[in-house]
Amino acid sequence: MPERAQDPTPEEVAADVATMAGLLSRRLRSTAPGTGLTPSQRSVLVRLADDGPATTAALARAEHVKPQSMRLTLGALEERGLVERTPDPADGRQSVMSVTDDGRTVLAGVRAAKQTWLSKVIAEELDAEERRTLAEAAGLLRRLTEK
């Protein structure tokens, strides 16, 4: 691989990484089976599955939306049986939302489709050295996201 005349600036790397992350994200979304979920619904479902049960207010804060919008999102997910509502043990006036078994099944299907596509394209397009480079880059991206 030819060397560059000078190292890229942090701004240049940031722009390239952001662009590629967006493209990869859109491509991964397009490989997922047709769940009928909006991006907001999918995001909330993933958050509940990964982080555990939460109140509507906590979810609204975490997703940076108004509580009214979160209520609509949760209502749609609840109507499809993907989340369920139980009384908050700390405050009976509130409810806690959690993912149902059906919700976990939907998420597992989405995640499996994404993983299958990405594994296949990596196997078909990258040689062993490129796979090592990509693995190193993934580690660097992980480190950046932990900041």
Automatic annotation (TrEMBL):
<dbReference type="GO" id="GO:0003677">
    <property type="term" value="F:DNA binding"/>
</dbReference>
<dbReference type="InterPro" id="IPR052526">
    <property type="entry name" value="HTH-type_Bedaq_tolerance"/>
</dbReference>
<dbReference type="GO" id="GO:0003700">
    <property type="term" value="F:DNA-binding transcription factor activity"/>
</dbReference>
<keyword id="KW-0238">DNA-binding</keyword>
<dbReference type="InterPro" id="IPR023187">
    <property type="entry name" value="Tscrpt_reg_MarR-type_CS"/>
</dbReference>
<keyword id="KW-0804">Transcription</keyword>
<feature type="domain" description="HTH marR-type">
    <location>
        <begin position="10"/>
        <end position="146"/>
    </location>
</feature>
<protein>
    <submittedName>
        <fullName>MarR family transcriptional regulator</fullName>
    </submittedName>
</protein>
<dbReference type="InterPro" id="IPR036390">
    <property type="entry name" value="WH_DNA-bd_sf"/>
</dbReference>
<dbReference type="InterPro" id="IPR000835">
    <property type="entry name" value="HTH_MarR-typ"/>
</dbReference>
<dbReference type="InterPro" id="IPR036388">
    <property type="entry name" value="WH-like_DNA-bd_sf"/>
</dbReference>
<keyword id="KW-0805">Transcription regulation</keyword>
<dbReference type="Pfam" id="PF01047">
    <property type="entry name" value="MarR"/>
</dbReference>
